[in-house]
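anyone else get weird line breaks when pasting these?? whatever heres mine. first is seq + tokens for prot A
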Amino acid sequence: MKFQIEKENLLNPLQQIIGAVEKRQTMPALSNVLIRATENSLSLTATDLEIELISQINMVVDEPAEITVPARKFLDICKSLPNEALINFTVSDSKALVQSGRSRFSLTTLPANDFPALEAINSIYEFEIPQSTLRDIIERTAFAMAQQDVRYYLNGLMLEVSANYLRAVATDGHRLAYCEKETSADIADIKQVILPRKGVLELLRLLSDSDDKVKVILGSNHLQVEFNALRMTSKLIDGRFPDYNRVMPTDGDNIFTADRDQLRQALVRASILSNEKYRGIRLILQKNLLKLQAQNPDQEEADIELEVVYNGDDIEIGFNVNYMLDVLNVSNTEMVQAALRDSNSSFLLTYPDQTDCKYVIMPMRL
């Protein structure tokens, strides 16, 4: 194998795929990047057997071949070179030689045959969506995913595709985040898949705020997202996601409206003296007044008052302050609205200016 490439043309694709390289690998090849060179292109592949990232570079290759080299060392070498550097890459006697100017690096290699590949995806549904739309729907829901829950189907993000709609739902059993966006998907029925946590975070890292479209391919066991010169494939979680419609409160007659940023600041102040382990805060609703109370095992107390728009019953309810802050941090709208039935019911948070997202928070005993 032999090729020559400018540093920037190699560094960017390497940085795109490095997230799939397993740090605590179970097999040596998983810490490597697969370099596959044809006459007119160079592809870089990384995988941890759960997700796979492939970046494509259009270029002329002197001697086509395929080999694997240590991914992070290769990336660090490219990063360390001057910005305008020209990189010469050759493979000889099971060693990869990286040369640029007066710098020479010799890397160990493993045969391309040792590199594992995810099985081919069998497409069930395909649709295109702007990167900004997909990024937005994930950002507004992913925070509610469970972490290492024994209910493995909660350790990911549920994506639901139906006629002209894409919905994302995440829950850890104590709170739920829901968001939907219109798409051009022409699908007769409803398809649900659960994307694992690492796939979700990696997709968030790769998506931009541009209106450039990506192609989303749903398979029976995989989800694939195709960018211009990049392709991400992720295994799906095999499980049945809870029926989110049953969790959505529909009888919350007591509704208060507050300035989002003022409420967020009040919650942050009250949380300072909350129990560090349980993060519980008491919320007291009275006519046009919201009180936030917190106390901890050291008998320290916080009492914060905030003017809100409210004409319902007097209600006192406990909740995890972090759950509320997570919701308030994923939006920059001016106002937020909460609806609840009584002190023992979960409450529904929405944004009057963004009706496509809903958030449910379960109460907690204090």
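and prot B, same format (seq, then tokens)
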Amino acid sequence: MTDERPTTLGVLLAGGLARRMGGGDKPMKTIAGRTILERVIERLKPQCDQIILNANGNASRFASFGLPVVADTIEGFAGPLAGVLTALDWTAAHRPDVEWVLSTATDCPFLPHDLVARLQHARISKGAQLAVAASGDQVHPVIGLWNVALREDLRHALVVEDMRKIDRWTARYKLATVTWPDKPIDPFFNANTIEDLAEAERLVSLDL
């Protein structure tokens, strides 16, 4: 890790129910013989000082990946914001030296190698409190940089205000948005359906 980038913890949000794939753990689906989760970890490991996995249910199903598995701290399926809050709470308790958490979905096998560096640079240069990724003309609010100091504000939004949409919460803060090109491959391509998995198999050859 370089001294130019603030210490950053990565959280992989694996709370989705994968209904469009017939259920099960979406990140455990395979692309060219490797699980999506394995590909996501490979992309983020060089960029983050530590990685944790946010998942509910039996944590042992992810044991082979060697990551701390942390269940939602808010009961009920409250969506990705609950996973972000869980990561902020875990970081405050276990890594008090870390101020920034990067979140990403676990169905994005082609994440950019400069994801953390560019989000941190944009946040710092714009004096922003949060940063999110975009590609082409689409913002990806699940893929973002979060300040641990905002965790009580987020808890209030989730528990008291029953807020679920990420962009509703991020709209309250100064936000930096960083855009990546979506050609020849969208780095935030996400595999939601069986058809998407087939497309991902085709895209593997284009991935650099």
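btw re prot B: Helices lie at 36-44, 80-94, 115-126, 151-159, 166-170, 194-203. The longest strand covers residues 138-147.
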